[in-house]
Amino acid sequence: MKPTSITDTLTLPCGAVLKNRIGKSAMSENMGSRGYTSNEKFNRLYARWAEGGIGLLITGNVMVDRFALGEAHNVVIEQGIQDANLPHWAAAGKKDGTHIWVQLNHPGKQSPKFLSKEPVAPSAIPLKKPLDRLFNTPRALTEDEILEIIARFAYAARVCKESGFTGVQIHGAHGYLVSQFLSPSHNQRTDRWGGTLENRMRFVKKVYLAIRKEVGASFPVSIKLNSADFQKGGFTQEDSREVIKQLSALGMDLIEISGGTYEAPAMMGAAQKESTQQREAYFLTYCEEVRKLVQSPLMLTGGFRSAQGMNAALESGACDVIGIARSLAIQPDFPNQLLSGSAVTSQVKPLTTGWKFLDKTFPLEIIWYTDQLHFMGEGKNPKPKKSALGSVLSMVYKLGKNAVKKVR
Question: Range of 158's domain?
Answer without folding.
Answer: 10-344
